[in-house]
Write a structure and sequence with these properties.
FAD/NAD(P)-binding domain; single chain; three-stranded antiparallel β-sheet; 12 helices; Polyamine Oxidase, Chain A, domain 2; alpha+beta; five-stranded antiparallel β-sheet
Length: about 325
């Protein structure tokens, strides 16, 4: 069942369009009319049969949808791979483009890189890349797995970062952020107060805001001019917070195919992908498309996959065998 069908049946169109839709757009960059209820919000299905009044249920619905807490490192998400790289030292190769993964005649896999001298032969490979990237890399190993991966939908996203003097805010900015409806001419899905959520993200006396724009709601933002997009976000802030002055800082960035979409049927597709992976011993996949739209889910899945890979390697070494 799509999430919108459940909300519309239980609470009506206005609750869906004015509250739930913007939260789904802003929290997971998903379309409430396509998002899988059972995969992303299984708690909502149980809530429907709960014996409580409508208002109590409505509050619980909003809390469930808005449960994804922002998470980041002080110097940004690049901190995590940076620390891993330092600890692993020469075992990590940076600035290296992998072109394909191929079977070796004697067993194992050849990880073929742009530079032949950097290519690696190994017993197992873990791919922590977007589904569409993984599909390209393993296309020589499994047509079925490649097809499943490449058909997983992703959406693109633009971010606009703006820093304002604290005194510019005539109305305090909401601590949880702004979540915007699709019918207001806005290009932004949500705007969060980055420097209020994460320390030392803005100079003293300023507030840094991050607007998330685009998704399936506004795909045109990936092509529009930076200045036009920034102006659209500034107009939203003028209406909501009374900001009339120019920002101290503006930065616009875009990433294509950034966010996996957890639409109806996603759970079944993931089961098919996992079955196909099991047919290629030594190949392991992980990423944000497996367990849902949160950082902790991605970390948990990656941890489980690496443990499985290590256990399988140890078992085969003990038997004096290669994985493939």
């Amino acid at each position: 069942m799509v999430a919108s069908a459940f909300i519309r049946r239980g609470f009506g169109d206005e609750f869906l369009e004015r509250l739930v839709g913007p939260l789904v757009d802003g929290c997971i960059v998903g379309d409430v009319n396509q998002v899988s209820l059972s995969f992303v919000y299984p708690e909502l299905q149980r809530l429907y049969d709960e014996d409580s009044n409508l208002m109590t249920k409505a509050v619980k619905v909003l809390n469930i949808i808005n449960r994804f807490e922002p998470a980041a490192f002080r110097w940004g998400m690049a901190t995590l791979p940076g620390v891993l790289g330092k600890r692993l030292g020469l075992a990590v190769r940076t600035h290296t483009t992998v072109e394909s993964i191929e079977r070796c005649p004697e067993g194992g896999f050849l990880v073929r890189t742009e530079s032949a001298s950097d290519s690696v032969i190994c017993d197992a490979v873990v791919l922590a890349t977007p589904a569409w990237t993984s599909a390209q890399l393993i296309s020589n190993l499994s047509t079925e797995l490649t097809t499943r991966l490449i058909n997983l939908p992703y959406t693109s996203l633009a971010t606009v970062n703006l820093s304002y003097r604290k005194d510019a805010f005539k109305t305090p900015f909401p601590q949880k952020g702004l979540f915007l409806t699709r019918d207001m001419g806005n290009k932004a899905l949500s705007i969060i107060p980055t420097s209020l959520l994460f320390r030392k993200r803005a100079p003293k006396g300023e507030i840094l805001l991050t607007a998330f724009c685009g998704g399936d709601a506004h795909p045109e933002v990936m092509e529009c001019d930076d200045a036009v997009l920034a102006t659209n976000v500034q107009s939203i802030l003028e209406k909501t917070c009374g900001i009339s002055e120019e920002p101290q800082f503006v930065s616009v960035s875009r990433i294509n195919q950034m966010i996996p979409q957890f639409n109806v049927g996603h759970g079944e597709t993931i089961n098919e992908i996992e079955d196909a992976i099991n047919d290629i011993p030594g190949i392991y996949l992980t990423g944000g498309y497996f367990r849902g739209p949160s950082l902790s889910s991605s970390i948990d899945h990656a941890t489980d996959v690496v443990r499985k890979a290590i256990e399988n390697l140890k078992a085969h070494v003990a038997c004096g065998q290669r994985l493939v």
